[in-house]
Amino acid sequence: METMVELQNLTKRFGPILAADRVSFSVGRGEVLGFLGPNGAGKSTTMKMVTCFLAPTAGTARVCGHDILSDSIAVRRTLGYLPEGAPAYPDMTPRSFLGFAAEVRGLRGAEKKKAVERAVELTSLQGVLGQPIDTLSKGFKRRVGLAQAILHDPEVLILDEPTDGLDPNQKHEVRQLINEMAGRKAIILSTHILEEVEAVCTRAVIIAAGRVIFDGTPEALEARSRWHNAVTLRLGRKSAPEAAEALKRLDGVGEVRVEDGPGDAERDVVVFTRNGKSIANEIADMARAKEWRVLEMRTERGRLDEVFRDLTASAKESPR
Amino acid sequence: MTPTLAIFKRELGGYFATPVAYVFIVIFLVLTGVSSFIFGGLFERNQADLLPFFGFHPILYLFLIPAISMRLWAEERKTGTVELLMTLPVTTLQAVLGKFLAAWAFTGIALVLTFPTWITVNYLGSPDNGVIVAGYLGSFLMAGSYLAIGSAISALTRNQVIAFVLAFVVCGIFVLLGYLSSLLNYVGLSAEVADIVGYFGFQNRFNALSKGVVYVRDLVYFASIMVCWLLANALILDLKKSR
């Protein structure tokens, strides 16, 4: 895979605070990298360094082979960037704002018109082109920012919290747009919404306290969860304790818990695995053999929020 | 040069997208009118020139130009658009220049709109229009110098009030240097020291131009004030980047 963005020990110090501590990772074409971390972990700082808004204290990054320190104009030409909160000139209309961004990027005449039209279409801005950005809803403002970022069809797209503060429909639209563009570009998007990682990302990088603490696929992240491949059986109240005892003796099973079901007569038996391997088949076989009346059975993929909490909490405790 | 032009167009258009431009122009025209006709006695002097008109410009600009320059960078920082602007493929100097030139062009427009005063003196008498053109040139150059100072100061802060007050004070010092020179002469200190102090002030340079005396050294003076402060402006922005 062709490497498009490469961060090498990117470090930023604000006085006594180390906002980014030797952050290194790379992103290839076709990848959508979810950049995760608690607030204040250094996500935005890292992105601001890659987009040449902040100069790193140490380390560097390369975008499409251009170094952010020695060739910053070329870097900025190749990438599209949506800053946090999608800032835009409030008195301008989306049409004039996008026209301005196109002109700064050296597009003129028919070229400029085509680029603006394409970006407007992709972000469905047709209805508000003549309205001052000031008067637009949050969702539209975000889309104006996105349109600006994809205006020149950049090879590399960096989006800082593209769906923050949007309603579920708007989130869905933005994710759809990202999915549409994903194949041809390298995309980095920061978020603290974990479902987004499952929805759009092919890879996840988690940082906490300025350090990368996880770099892998969303599946690998799920596999770290205690809940990965855990099976929940909904049984009748009477058979539940007996079933729990039997399940405990099953191969590969770790903890077994009995919880209250939605109704009085129902109980949920939660079966955790010992090593993360799937145990759904074995449990189904046992249920059939013992003729339990199973009302419901489901397998968990893993709870990302729990993994996220565990990972980021341990990073906070370790000394810097 | 393309990005500079794009920024120049956006900025200049931005002035007229809000009432700011119109309010400023009206206040500027009223104040120049009041100062030259009432305080300056343009009619009573019985002379066909615009000396009373230009004479008040250094003081007027002291209040009005910082009002324009204060928002140049402070507002961008406040609304976060500076992040957008500086991650577009523009160099810091191109951005500084685009914004400055737009603000300067805007004050130029306000200055041109004082033409009825010029028509008035031409109707009532026969002034030396060459002198008047030199006066306008001097006024325009001085406005540019105030703006360059104000723009650099605006880059220091995200607070427009601070940007205004600081620009007012620094521009005020440049105006006062002229009076200080006269004062030094008056108390009988060495004429050389008084002259040197005077060289750095706006007043003497501008006075010469408004009387129609166009020295290359005065033009170079205003040009170098602008260049120095705009370079400082770019430097401040770059330092903020690696703070």
How would you sum up this structure in a few lines?
Chain A has eleven helices and 14 strands. Chain A is α/β, with parallel strands linked by helices and 320 residues long.
Question: Please, could you describe this protein's structure?
Answer:
The complex is a heterodimer of chains A (320) and B (243). Chain A has 320 residues and is of the alpha/beta class. Chain A folds into two domains: 3-223, 3-Layer(aba) Sandwich (Rossmann fold); 231-300, 2-Layer Sandwich (Alpha-Beta Plaits), CATH 3.30.70.1340. Chain A has eleven helices and 14 strands. In chain A, strand 12 (253-260) and strand 13 form a beta hairpin. The longest helix of chain A is centred in the middle third of the chain and has 15 residues, at 168-182. Chain A starts with a strand and ends with a helix. The model of chain A has no long low-confidence stretch (mean pLDDT 89). Chain B is an all-alpha fold. Chain B has one domain. Helix content of chain B is 81%, strand content 0%. Chain B has 13 helices and no strands. Chain B has helices spanning 2-17, 20-39, 51-55, 57-69, 71-79, 81-86, 92-112, 115-124, 129-154, 160-186, 191-200, 202-210, 216-241. The radius of gyration of chain B is 19 Å and the shape is globular. The two termini of chain B are 28 Å apart. The model of chain B has no long low-confidence stretch (mean pLDDT 90). At the A-B interface, helix 2 and helix 3 of A face helix 1 and helix 6 of B.
How would the blueprint of this fold be written?
The complex is a heterodimer of chains A (320) and B (243).
Chain A: E1 3-14, E2 17-28, E3 32-36, H1 43-50, E4 58-63, E5 66-67, H2 72-78, E6 79-82, H3 94-104, H4 109-122, H5 138-150, E7 156-160, H6 168-182, E8 186-191, H7 194-200, E9 203-208, E10 211-216, H8 218-223, E11 231-236, H9 239-248, E12 253-260, E13 266-273, H10 280-290, E14 296-299, H11 304-317
Parallel strand pairs in A: 3-8, 3-9, 6-7, 7-8
Antiparallel strand pairs in A: 1-2, 1-4, 4-5, 9-10, 11-13, 11-14, 12-13
Helix pairs in contact in A: 3-4, 4-5
Chain B: H1 2-17, H2 20-39, H3 51-55, H4 57-69, H5 71-79, H6 81-86, H7 92-112, H8 115-124, H9 129-154, H10 160-186, H11 191-200, H12 202-210, H13 216-241
